[in-house]
Amino acid sequence: MKTLVAISGASGRTGYRIAEEALARGRAVRLLVRSTSKLPPSLAGCDIRRLDFGRLSQLVEALRGCHSLVMATGARPSVNLLGPFQVDTQAVQRQVQACRQAGVGRVLLVSSLCSGQLWHNLNLFGLILVCKRWGEEALESSGLDWTVVRPGGLKEAEADPEQQELVVSGANTQQQGTIPRRLVARYCLECLDTPSTVHQVLEITSKPRQAP
Ligand SMILES: NC(=O)c1ccc[n+]([C@@H]2O[C@H](COP(=O)([O-])OP(=O)(O)OC[C@H]3O[C@@H](n4cnc5c(N)ncnc54)[C@H](OP(=O)(O)O)[C@@H]3O)[C@@H](O)[C@H]2O)c1
Asked: Signal sequence: where (predicted)?
């Protein structure tokens, strides 16, 4: 029987690509999104659970039967400066708690390069890098088989991902750099299948592949 992978934030630009890549690998997926979330046509026909991420019981119900969860939720830029705390901290904490209650053992969080840094321009939006670190900490202390993936600046470009090579390193080693969302999605799926990435914080960016 195929193991079921849940993907939260699957309506987001990284989340939907994670779902597409999981499907391309023949995985069974369940998409956890808000009642108002819009999904691309490529994900029509998937097992979709619409819920309130503020309600633990709804998260637990949506996660029952899943083997793993990839969290690709993240506060969208807005005037609500509490967004990062509500989404990148609290909604992550709640998803972690729900995984424990629902028996989901393997959990991956898409976080961000520079997570935990206080003196950073990105923090002008609700101390987002601090909030992300609090979310990571909840996962790291959960007792679950966790992986934190911290990508650099996310790019929409789909045209040239094959021309890029990944730069992967441990926690607090990369300060800048970018990466196409498609490559982040592929890397997340790779991590789920790679036991050595359990209990690791991994920072990823990409750079043009050198000609041989
Ligand atoms: N932008 C960058 O350069 C960058 C760099 C490094 C890391 N990151 C992080 O990488 C992750 C993915 O980024 P992205 O740009 O691909 O994401 P995105 O397109 O902004 O999508 C965000 C996702 O989170 C969901 N979400 C937002 N608020 C929510 C809430 N209150 N409850 C439940 N779900 C909520 C959104 O749902 P709706 O569709 O319903 O709004 C959407 O599915 C995020 O955590 C982001 O912070 C971003």
From this structure: none
